[in-house]
Amino acid sequence: VQLVESGGGLVQAGGSLRLSCAASGIIFSINAMDWYRQAPGKQRELVAGITSGGRTNYADSVKGRFTISRDNAKNTMYLQMNSLKPEDTAVYYCKQRIGIWGQGTQVTVSS
User: Fold this and answer.
1) What average pLDDT score do residues 15-29 get?
2) Are 26 and 1 in contact (CB under 8 A)?
3) How far apart are CA 96 and CA 5, in angstroms?
4) Spatial separation of the C-alpha atoms in residues 109 and 66, rounded to whole Å
5) 43: Cβ–Cβ under 8 A, 6 or more apart, which residues?
6) What pLDDT score was predicted for residue 1?
């Protein structure tokens, strides 16, 4: 059972990144999934979530800028991040809502 994030990196403010979370060892399609992030010195926070039926929810701080989606045929979840801000800098984690965490991917937004 494994979740593997990818797509992080360094981007200038106003830029975009797309994170991916590839799942293995779980029946991905029936699982609600979430993206979290943790900035240095701060608590881990929920960024966005998506149910097995595709219902989504977002933190107020990312509404209108981030889009969560999933491709059940590929066992993969995505986080499209647009209009990035320096305060979005964090390690981003995917999580099976009731279950395991991925190892995280670093996102750094320069001003």
Assistant:
1) 94
2) yes
3) 12
4) 14
5) none
6) 86
